[in-house]
Amino acid sequence: YIQSWLKVLKEDKRAIFAAASHAQRAADYIHGLQPKQEEGAAA
After folding, report:
1. Res 37: pLDDT
2. Which of 1, 6, 15, 42 is most buried, judged by most C-beta within 10 A?
């Protein structure tokens, strides 16, 4: 697994930033699927 990432990073120095961007978009999407809580219900 790590070996494949090292190969990608050697070929494209900005690949880690693209991967991080995609991961953040995925996390934001999943977070957006969560039901909204009312302010008094949190905690």
Report:
1. 79
2. 15
